[in-house]
Specification:
This protein is mostly helical. It has 2 domains: 94 residues, no CATH class; 127 residues, no CATH class.
């Protein structure tokens, strides 16, 4: 005969299985978001490569969501809650990894610099950063990251989702510029873009997930797309 403790444990496992089935349709987009964002963070030097496992992190997200939302029946609310927890999980891991000497003060200075970057136009009509891109590479991260290139998978997703010309991947210089442009997007804006690119979320869903007005998300997406026209 099972003890009361064993019965409670068995009941909890059954409830979790039911919860997992309830979120089954959300899992593919959530996993793509976590995988893409995790890879991007690794290539930017924000996380150690190969140290974190997507499935393990997602298991933590599912358990936390189960504890908080086991009785939730609204699929839309569940999806938004799961994405919020995934974002917090990633931000928590990144916060743990950033060395003290490049913590809050340096990151804030770097973000302000990025937000205020000026653009100009050359004689042939090409838009470039007012400061030479080489000069960016990479003042605010050079203390802990030497990588600028993203991997092929991330690059192709960026090009496709942002409506860029595939010629952006034809040369090492273009790929390097793509990496610089991506890694210099401010942290919160990058979350918006990664939800769109990796999580397959539209601007309305992104606004609900991160709890900001939809027009703010729209402006961020527009500004980021304008940024990539430098390619």
């Amino acid at each position: 005969m099972m003890s009361n403790k064993e019965l409670q444990k068995d009941k909890k496992e059954i409830q979790f299985e039911q919860f997992y089935k309830k979120i089954a349709n959300i899992i593919p987009d959530l996993k793509r978001f976590m995988t893409g964002s995790l890879k991007a963070a690794e290539y930017q030097g924000l996380l150690d490569k190969g140290f974190y496992d997507t499935d393990e992190m997602l298991d933590e997200v599912y358990l936390e969501a189960f504890q908080d939302f086991a009785s939730e029946t609204d699929a839309i609310k569940l999806r938004r809650s799961l994405f919020r927890k995934a974002i917090k999980k990633l931000e928590g891991k990144e916060a743990e990894e950033v060395p003290d000497e490049v913590n809050t003060h340096s990151l804030l200075k770097a973000e302000l610099k990025t937000l205020n970057e000026d653009f100009t136009t050359e004689a042939d009509g090409d838009r470039i950063l007012f400061e030479d891109l080489d000069d960016i590479s990479y003042k605010q991260k050079k203390a802990w990251s030497k990588e600028i290139h993203l991997d092929d998978f991330l690059e192709k997703q960026l090009v496709r989702k942002l409506g860029l010309n595939e010629s952006a991947l034809l040369s090492e210089e273009k790929r390097r510029t793509l990496g610089i442009l991506y890694t210099t997007i401010p942290e919160r804006s990058k979350t918006v873009i990664e939800l769109h690119i990796f999580g397959n979320q539209d601007k309305h869903e992104i606004a609900e997930i991160i709890e900001v007005p939809e027009e703010v998300v729209e402006k961020v997406m527009f500004k980021v797309k304008e940024r990539f026209k430098l390619l």
